[in-house]
Design brief:
- Helix 2 links the parallel strand 1 and strand 2.
- This protein is α/β, with parallel strands linked by helices.
- Helix 2 packs across helix 15.
- The longest helix has 34 residues.
- The chain has a five-stranded mixed β-sheet.
- 51% of the residues lie in helices and 17% in strands.
- The chain folds into two domains: 158 residues, Periplasmic binding protein-like II (D-Maltodextrin-Binding Protein, domain 2); 93 residues, Osmoprotection protein (prox), domain 2 (D-Maltodextrin-Binding Protein, domain 2), CATH 3.40.190.
């Protein structure tokens, strides 16, 4: 009886070990996937920044043995910056002029290299964030009006616009209205005093100006919608806007955790000029191509994947 009982116990023990071994295979696979780590790529809430987020995400997926999580279309500058600073994001693309004025609250500076050096040093020391090498394009703010408005009032410069601003409606998102490097600052420098100011989702301002709900708006120099709606771009004759060179901004803890990340993202350095960025934006915003297919084709054309 004792021998039979011992045999049964032995067989049960072997069975349990076998089952544990089978279960361990799945856990090992899942653990291995988790051990790769996950890089979280974010973006602001407008087409260009979302597209840049997708380009960076696909490049990382292709070059590094990590998981990539996308948090694209996250929000405006402050939302994205705080998420990066807290570590909820590992990286997103930002603009040097935005960093200088919207985050650091520094006065306008027009030298691109000086602006980059200022934001790099301050972000490193104050926020544990590093600016990597710029993509190559300067997506500076500008002001746009319909061609018929420009013809009617003979508008060529921001100063021209200021002289007739009391007859016009300006429309943009709430963030630009309140920013020192936005409408608030333009009023002080140019004396603009619009008849009305309309706050709206940033993506809707081009439709609004095309539909004559507003007369003037802010634009980015590389926006594809400028081509679509045939808008007139005015000259910043007092050099109000600083340079807005775009680059990946990365939490420095992430760079320490993933040493290959900086090298990977710097493959994009100098790869996109102003005209190329405007064309990429046009493909998404006007021709209706997906950000995924535009990002993939761009990376292939540049021999990066």
């Amino acid at each position: 009886m004792n021998k039979k009982l011992l045999l049964i116990i032995s067989l049960l023990a072997v069975s349990l070990l076998a089952l544990a071994g089978c279960g361990g295979g799945d856990e090992t696979a899942n653990s291995g996937d988790a051990e790769k780590g996950t890089i979280v790529v974010g973006s602001k809430n407008f087409n260009e920044n979302i597209l840049l987020g997708e380009i960076m995400a696909q490049l990382i997926e292709n070059k590094m043995d990590v998981n990539v999580e996308r948090k694209l279309n996250l929000g405006g500058t402050l939302v994205s910056f705080q998420a990066l600073k807290k570590g909820d994001l590992d990286l997103y693309a930002d603009y040097t002029g935005t960093g200088l004025m919207a985050i650091l609250k520094q006065p306008v500076e027009t030298d691109p290299d000086k602006v980059y050096n200022i934001v790099q040093k301050a972000y490193n020391e104050q926020h544990n964030i590093k600016w990597l090498k710029p993509f190559g394009f300067n997506n500076t703010y500008t002001l746009a009006v319909r061609e018929e408005t420009a013809d009617k009032y003979n508008l060529e410069t921001y100063s021209d616009l200021a002289e007739v601003s009391n007859e016009l409606t300006f429309g943009t998102d709430q963030e630009f209205i309140n920013r020192e490097d936005g409408l608030k600052g333009l009023k002080e420098v140019y004396g603009m005093d619009f008849d009305a100011e309309k706050a709206m989702e940033i993506a809707l301002r081009y439709q609004a100006i095309a539909n004559k709900q507003i007369d003037a708006t802010n634009a980015f120099a590389t926006d594809g919608e400028l081509i679509k709606y045939n808008l007139s771009i005015l000259e910043d004759d007092k050099n109000f806007f600083p340079p807005y060179y775009c680059a990946p901004t990365v939490n420095m803890d992430s760079l320490e955790k993933y040493p290959q990340l900086e090298e990977t993202l710097n493959l994009l350095a100098g790869q996109i000029n102003d005209q190329e960025m405007q064309q990429l934006n046009y493909l998404v915003a006007v021709e209706g191509k997906t950000k995924e297919e535009v990002a993939e084709q761009f990376l292939k054309d540049k021999d990066l994947i």
